[in-house]
Amino acid sequence: MEHTVDELEAIVRNRICSVCTERTTDDQCGLEDPSSCALFRLFPQVAQAIQSVNSSDIQPYIDAIRRNVCSVCQEQAQDASCEARQQVQCALDAYLLLVVDAIEEATGKTFDKTGIQNLPAGPAVVPGPQLRL
Ligand code: SF4
Ligand code: SF4
After folding, report:
1. Which of 15, 28, 39 to mutate to test the pocket of ligand 1 (most atoms within 8 A of CB)?
2. What's the rounded Cα separation, in Å, for the pair 119 and 59?
3. Nearest-CA neighbor of 90 among 57, 45, 42?
């Protein structure tokens, strides 16, 4: 079944917010401004970027996110660096593997998690804004 972007966003919110370290004990987003979360502020671009890739390796997804999402994100500096990413404060970057998994599962694709072995060193992905790959 084909999902709308809104449906995909609801699926991803359900999956990611529930494990996000910003989540408060009363199930709210703990960010000062919840609408600033890059994952959902730019969700249409996130969904489009992930759906444009079909790989068992996470790197092409990271590349697509950098190219299609980070490039239009207000947090990215002119030299393509990102303080939020460096500080592991971007939920999109911190949880990218889970985001890809959720979207691919919802759209009928299977993301082969063995690709995690090919993860590059440096910030991007995995359980919790305090963790990095
Ligand atoms: S920071 Fe983003 S992913 Fe985390 S709880 Fe808030 S809206 Fe959800
Ligand atoms: S890594 Fe930085 S530039 Fe990319 S979406 Fe997150 S906050 Fe924006």
Report:
1. 39
2. 6
3. 42
Domain that holds residue 66: 5-115
pLDDT at 133: 38
CB of 12 within 8 A of CB of 103? Answer: yes
- Residue minimizing CA distance to atom 5 of ligand 2: 70
Q: Which ligand gives the minimal distance to the CA of 28?
A: 1
Residue range 50-59: average pLDDT? 94
Q: How many separate domains does the chain show?
A: 1
Is 126 part of any domain?
no
- pLDDT score recorded for residue 86: 96
Tell me, using a 6 A CB cutoff, whether residue 102 lines ligand 2.
no
In a domain, 129, yes or no: no
Q: Which two tokens stand for residue 7?
A: 């449906």
Interval 88-124: pLDDT, tens = 999 999 999 999 999 999 998 876 666 554 444 444 5
**Which residues, judged by CB distance below 6 Å to any ligand atom, belong to the binding site of ligand 1?**
16-17, 20, 22-23, 29, 31, 34, 37, 39-40, 91
Q: Is residue 121 part of a domain?
A: no
